[in-house]
Write a structure and sequence with these properties.
single chain; 237 residues; 10% helix; 55% strand
């Protein structure tokens, strides 16, 4: 039983990132709750090659038209004795003509407390995304006033993210050789008036070896990194 717990906790800590929280900021004063499922692909003995079923629950609020603050709780980690949270902000830096495209950044941090070993860690994070809004429903002003808001467009985005490892050593006092963990992502937001269905494909740590670790990760880059798949819903109010 103890070996199974070690296996699961190792899976949660290594490559345990989630999808992009808010690529485009919410409206000022608007709130949203989110739920996501997914993780890096791994070979599970006797089962199949599947995304590890990490789950997270989050909340975001529009502080200004260009800034959204958010926080998330990793619910799967909690089941196995790891209290893991992240918090940050999405900031719109550039917006193109007619709001068709833009660039946002998301400085944030992720924390994890392992109750089995009483070990606490913090990882600063930084994401940058380019997004393109399409299929913006053509509605006249009278329709917008009747329906209570502006039309929603779907969102296609791509970006790069980075985790920073602050500790100089890892498990068993081994020297930490990887201090910066890059990630590449492509995603899509399918939007309705109040709901969003998110899907995201991610290359996690594509320059770091995935050999001789607890989890048998699967990656498009072969023996380096992992390939992640994520799905989720967002409800705005």
């Amino acid at each position: 039983m103890k070996s199974k717990i070690v296996f699961i906790i190792s899976s949660l800590v290594l490559f345990s990132c989630g999808p992009s929280r808010f690529v485009e900021p919410l409206e000022k004063g608007e709130s949203a709750i989110s739920a996501s499922l997914g993780g890096p692909l791994a070979n599970i003995p006797g089962v199949a090659t599947i995304p590890l079923p990490f789950t997270s629950i989050g909340y975001g609020r529009g502080i200004t038209p260009n800034i959204t603050a958010y926080g998330s709780w990793y619910s799967t980690a909690a089941v196995f004795g790891v209290a893991q949270f992240d918090a940050g902000a999405t900031i719109r830096m550039i917006e193109g003509p007619k709001q068709k495209h833009g660039v946002s950044i998301s400085p944030a941090f992720n924390t994890a407390l392992d109750f089995y070993s009483n070990n606490f860690k913090v990882w600063p994070k930084f994401d940058a995304n380019y997004y393109w809004r399409y299929n913006n429903r053509q509605e006249v002003q009278d329709d917008l006033l009747t329906k209570g808001g502006k039309p929603k467009a779907n969102l296609l985005y791509a970006g790069i993210g980075t985790w920073f490892e602050l500790d100089g050593t890892r498990a068993h006092d081994v020297k930490q050789s990887t201090r910066i963990v890059p990630m590449l992502n492509i995603g899509h937001d399918l939007n309705w008036k109040k709901w969003t269905f998110k899907s995201e494909f991610k290359l996690i740590a594509p320059f770091s070896s995935n050999q001789d670790i607890v989890v048998d990760y699967v990656s498009l880059t072969g023996e380096r990194g992992a390939t992640g798949l994520y799905f989720g819903f967002v409800r705005r109010f």
